[in-house]
Structure formats: C-alpha cells, structure tokens
C-alpha cells in the first residue's frame, strides 16, 4: 500500500491511497470464496461451484464487498501509520478499481490539530484578597429592598429620584425616528412610559429636562443622540420630543425590620443579615475559584498556537448563534432587531466557538497524557443533575441526549472540569490586592472548558 499525503490546509489533508493489483486480486478471491459457501448455482451443490462461475454470477456484489473492505482496512492503516486523527468522516473519490488493477482513491479529511502541550503544572495565577464586608451586606439588603419597592402617585413637581409617567412622540428632522431605524418604535412613540434619571433615561437629557414639571404638563425637549447609542445610524443627530406628563410617582422602599425579614423567610432581621452574609461568602468563594480556573485555561490558550478544523468551528458557531437567538427571544427581543444584528451575533459566536474548540483540544490532550477519563457513574450523576434542573426523568433525558448526539458534549464537559481540577490543584497562586470594582466581571467564558 502506498500513501501520499497533501496538506490542503493545516487541519485538512488529502490522502492518495494505492493498493497493488496483487492485493486487490487476493481480496476478490477471498470474497468470492465467502460467496461460494452460500451460492446456489445450477448444477452445483452449495459451496462446490468453481470460483470463475461464482465471479460471473455475483461479480458486481463481490466487487462492491472487495472495494468496501479494501478501503476500510487501507484507510484505517493509513491513519494509524501517519498518526492522523480525523474529526469527521472523509470525502472519498475513487480513481481506479477493478479485478487485476491497482485500487486507487483519494480521501479528503479534517484532522485534530497537532501542537506541543505547554507546561501545565504550576501555572502562575492571581487570586484577589477579598472578604465580605459590612458594605457588601448593606448593598445586598438594598437589592432586597428594591424587590419590595412601592410607587405612590404624588401631586407635586417631579424630583430627581421620582419616576415620571409620560406619553411622547420623537422625531428627527420632523420625521418619525422609525424612518431612520425601522425597529426603533420604542424611541418614536410610547404611551404611559415610565422615565427615571438612573433606571430608564430613554436618551440622556430627557429626564433632566422634565425635573420640576408636574402632572398634565406638556414639554418639548431636544436632545443630541450620544456616541455609545445602540443605533449607530442615530449618533450625533438631534431628536425632538413632544412630551405629556401623565403622572409623577414617588418611590418608597420598606424599612429594614423584622417584618421585612419575615417577607424573605427569616425570623428576624439579624437572621436575614446572617443568611445574606453566608450567601455572599459562598458567591465570593465560587467567584474567586472560577477566576483561578479561568486563568489556568487562559494561560494554556495563550501558550498554544494552532489552526482549528473548520468543520468543528463551524458547527460550534452554528450552535452558538442558535443559543444567542434563543436567549434574545426569551428576553423579548424582536426578530427585526435580531436580523439587524445578525453579523455581530455571528462574529461573536465564531470568536467564542474558536476559543471553546481550542480549549477543548488542549484539555483533551492533557486528559490523554494524564490518563483522566469519565466514568459511567460521573456521567449518570451529571445527567441526573441536569434532569432535576429541567424537571424531567433522568432516563428520559439520557435517551434524548443519546439520540441527538449531545451526550458527548456532557462527557466533554465533565472531562474538562476534571482536567481543570488538576490545573487548579497544581497552580501557583499569588494573592493580590483587589482590582477596582469596575474591572470585575469582564473575564471571558469558555463554556465547556470551564467548571460549572
């Protein structure tokens, strides 16, 4: 057997495989002998007909079977001898096949990227020295108070903290804003719309112009659309708003007392404060642990430079786009807005897919080297946990995952988490002073590559 490999791209190979005529003839003979055992040919007892007669009667079927086994054996051997690990089924083009002739074919395939594993023991990572403070607890309690907020109609001019309920129409150059951006209906006209300087300003400058106005007042407000506005086409343009104030509402937050605590299932304010502190400590521990684990993966991603199989990245991108669209639908984002942003959605999904796929290859290679595997019990436990979350029976979910092929993703997720356990355990952790608050929460996620 002769194999010639052509690199079409770093992860795409074309194998030209040739099997000599002698091997081809031997395979035809052995397949013909198998056929003869069961052949019913006139004038011969089963298994006794001459091979030439069997070949004449079953030639096409014998040829197909000979080709199938020759191709299967030679392809497997070519992969093994050249250390190739395909990620998809090959595309095969037959060049020549027949009795008495060499068998030649081309197999085009994408393969797992080849790269050297960087040193993954003792990765240097940072961990912030952070504790839960009284201020953190107060902030969390304020968030709980916001959940029990009430609004009272007031007959006085609007103050800075008030909510102002308005009817409005917005124009640019005397035309509805929807003439410039079709999907900007919410900026063009609203009835009984709640405005607040901090929570929902609509466009900066509008609420400020209404402070001091009262119920039934009418105002014309002109604002310039700022640079970071969601619709780029409107940036820098002057919008004119005709506004009628329907009502001014004063926001009231409940007192932090035992009655308030009971509303959250705690017997007293001290108990509620204690519960909030414990929750915050658990969240902080989880967040610091996740940061260390993410840094470990990021270090490896930075240390490895390799091309990725197009097919795998495309499939991961397709899934990513699907997930983003689903999430937007659930948040009530309209189809027009999604269509308008489809290029951005695709670019984000592709960038994320490339990171995930690369991380998966690195972690998988470490798992192989370290002999880390996923046990049946671990897989069952994970499926059971997912089933509880989705409120379905574990057996039913397991069946679904097998049928749609996503059981491998669950397996991959568990394997990755086990590898990251090892990276975390071996990492060299340096404690550092906390970064300024606004820097938190910007870490990139690698999906399957990270722990749950």
Write a concise synopsis of the structure shown.
This protein is an alpha+beta fold and 452 residues long. The protein is 47% helix and 19% strand.
CATH architecture tag of the largest domain: Orthogonal Bundle
Number of structural domains: 3
Low-confidence stretches: 438-452
How many H/I helices?
13
- How many strand segments? 12
The structural class is alpha+beta
Topology order in helix (H) and strand (E) letters = EEHHEEEHEEEHEHEEHHHHHHHHE
Quote the average pLDDT. 92
Q: Largest sheet, described in full?
A: 6 strands, antiparallel
Outline the structure in words.
- The chain is an alpha+beta fold.
- The chain has three domains: 2-110, Alpha-Beta Plaits (2-Layer Sandwich); 150-252, Chitinase A, domain 3, CATH 3.10.50; 261-449, Trigger factor, C-terminal domain (Trigger factor, domain 2), CATH 1.10.3120.
- Helices cover 47% and strands 19% of the residues.
- The protein contains 13 helices and twelve strands.
- The chain has helices at residues 21-38, 51-81, 134-147, 185-188, 206-210, 258-262, 269-303, 310-330, 335-340, 342-370, 376-390, 394-403, 407-426; strands spanning 2-9, 12-19, 91-96, 103-110, 124-128, 150-154, 163-172, 175-176, 189-195, 218-224, 238-252, 428-432.
- The strands form three sheets. Strands 6, 7, 8, 9, 10 and 11 form a six-stranded antiparallel beta sheet that branches. Strands 1-2-4-3 form a four-stranded antiparallel beta sheet. A two-stranded parallel ribbon has the order 5-12.
- Strand 7 (163-172) and strand 8 form a beta hairpin.
- Helix 8 (310-330) packs across helix 10 (342-370).
- The protein is elongated and about 110 Å long.
- The model is unreliable at 438-452 (pLDDT under 50).
């Amino acid at each position: 057997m002769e194999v010639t490999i052509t690199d079409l791209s770093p992860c795409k190979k074309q194998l030209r495989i040739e099997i000599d005529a002698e091997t081809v003839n031997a395979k035809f003979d052995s397949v013909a002998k198998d056929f003869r055992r069961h052949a019913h040919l006139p004038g011969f007892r089963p298994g006794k007909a001459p091979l030439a007669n069997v070949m004449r009667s079953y030639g096409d079927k014998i040829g197909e079977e000979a080709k199938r086994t020759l191709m299967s054996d030679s392809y497997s051997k070519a992969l093994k001898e050249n250390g190739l690990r395909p990620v998809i089924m090959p595309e095969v083009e037959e060049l020549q096949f027949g009795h008495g002739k060499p068998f030649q074919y081309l197999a085009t395939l994408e393969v797992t990227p080849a790269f050297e594993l960087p040193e993954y023991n003792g990765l240097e990572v940072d961990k912030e020295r952070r504790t839960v403070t009284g201020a953190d607890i107060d902030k969390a309690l304020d968030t709980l108070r916001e959940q029990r907020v009430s609004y009272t109609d007031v007959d006085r001019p609007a103050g800075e903290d008030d909510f102002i309920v308005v009817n409005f129409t917005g124009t640019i150059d005397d035309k509805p804003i929807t003439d410039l951006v079709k999907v900007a209906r919410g900026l063009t006209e609203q009835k009984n719309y709640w405005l607040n300087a901090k929570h929902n300003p609509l466009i900066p400058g509008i609420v400020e112009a209404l402070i001091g106005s009262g119920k039934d007042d009418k105002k014309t407000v002109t604002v310039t659309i700022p640079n970071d506005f969601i619709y780029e086409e409107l940036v820098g343009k002057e919008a004119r708003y005709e506004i009628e104030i329907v009502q001014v509402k004063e926001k009231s937050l409940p007192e932090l007392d035992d009655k308030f605590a009971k509303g959250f299932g705690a017997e007293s304010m001290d108990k509620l404060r204690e519960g909030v502190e414990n929750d915050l400590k658990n969240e902080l521990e989880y967040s610091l642990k996740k940061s260390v684990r993410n840094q470990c993966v990021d270090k490896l991603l930075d240390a490895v430079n390799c091309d990725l199989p197009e097919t795998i990245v495309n499939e991961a991108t397709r899934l990513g786009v699907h997930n983003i669209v689903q999430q937007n639908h659930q948040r009530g984002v309209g189809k027009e807005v999604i269509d308008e942003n489809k290029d951005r959605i695709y670019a984000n999904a592709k960038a994320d897919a490339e990171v995930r796929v690369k991380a998966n290859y690195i972690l998988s290679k470490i798992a192989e080297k370290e002999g880390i595997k996923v046990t049946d019990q671990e897989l069952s436990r994970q499926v059971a946990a997912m089933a509880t979350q989705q409120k379905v029976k574990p057996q039913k979910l397991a069946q679904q995952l097998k049928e749609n092929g996503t059981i491998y993703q669950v397996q991959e997720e568990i394997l990755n988490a086990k590898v990251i356990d090892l990276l975390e355990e071996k990492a060299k952790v340096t404690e550092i002073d906390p970064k300024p608050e606004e820097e938190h929460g910007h870490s990139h996620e690698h999906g399957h590559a990270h722990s749950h």
